[in-house]
TrEMBL record:
Protein known as: Longin domain-containing protein
InterPro entries assigned: Longin-like_dom_sf, Longin_dom, Sec22
Residues annotated as domain Longin: 6-123
Top-level taxon of the source organism: Eukaryota
A single cellular component GO annotation: endoplasmic reticulum membrane
Family: Belongs to the synaptobrevin family.
Matches recorded under SMART domains: Longin
UniProt KW keywords: Coiled coil, Membrane, Protein transport, Transmembrane, Transmembrane helix, Transport
TM regions (residue ranges): 196-216
Coiled coil feature spans: none
Chief location: endoplasmic reticulum
Length: 225
């Protein structure tokens, strides 16, 4: 069963449209916001080229995110892990065909998440045809020798999250020395050094002379002079 669908722009990772939620029980209803956040995270990873632009399946819990990318737009769905991948591909390809009927220039102007509301109803209408995998139409699709690309790469969401965390950690490490060098190489620090270095040297020399004179005076006193 297709439970969640997100259509997003690859260039900036902005989610453009979604279908209404479809969950069976209270537990899944509670997790729906989590699944949605995970879908948005995947979209962002695609936009930053951390995930391929080819067909992909991402496993999470007992579900799978499946996505395809067509003309800079990502079509993603969340299904039960048992849902036939072949049907998922038909579903996403059908969404992509419907999307092509819209003026891309208007869609490029969208700046707010999920504001392409008109496509949400289209998603819902197409999804209805893929709810029951045993319908004659869907069985025919499953048995057909289609020419569509069904070679989905597969990965666990946990691995993608770990890779993202490592990337962020490396970014922080590489940026830290640069930040420090900018401080020490700043013009203000150079001015401060030129101003206070002579004063520091004079103070240090004066302290040594004072210390030496005190020692010399103690030696004279000890000798009886």
């Amino acid at each position: 069963m297709v439970k969640l669908t997100i259509v997003g722009r690859v260039s900036d990772g902005l989610p453009l449209a979604q279908c209404p939620r479809y969950v069976n029980d209270e537990e899944e209803n509670d997790n729906f916001s989590t699944y949605k956040q995970q879908g948005e995270f995947i979209l962002k990873e695609i936009s930053r080229a951390a995930l391929p632009l080819t067909n992909m399946t991402i496993r999470v819990d007992h579900h799978c995110f499946n996505y395809i990318v067509e003309n800079g737009i990502c079509f993603m769905s969340l299904c039960d892990s048992s849902y036939p991948r072949k049907l998922v591909n038909y579903y996403l390809q059908e969404l992509a065909k419907e999307y092509q009927k819209f003026d891309s220039r208007l869609i490029e102007r969208i700046t707010k998440p999920y504001s392409f509301v008109g496509f949400g109803s289209i998603i819902g209408n197409i999804r209805r045809h893929y709810v029951d995998t045993r319908t004659q139409t869907n069985l025919a699709k499953l048995n057909a020798k289609c020419q569509q690309n069904l070679d989905f790469m597969t990965e666990d969401l946990s691995q993608i999250v770990k890779r993202r965390n490592r990337s962020e950690m490396l970014d922080r490490i590489t940026q830290a020395p640069e930040h420090i060098s900018q401080i020490w190489g700043s013009k203000n620090l150079e001015i401060i050094a030129l101003k206070w270095t002579p004063i520091t040297i004079l103070t240090f020399v004066g302290a040594i002379l004072l210390w030496t004179s005190l020692i010399f005076r103690d030696d004279l006193a000890f000798a009886g002079f």
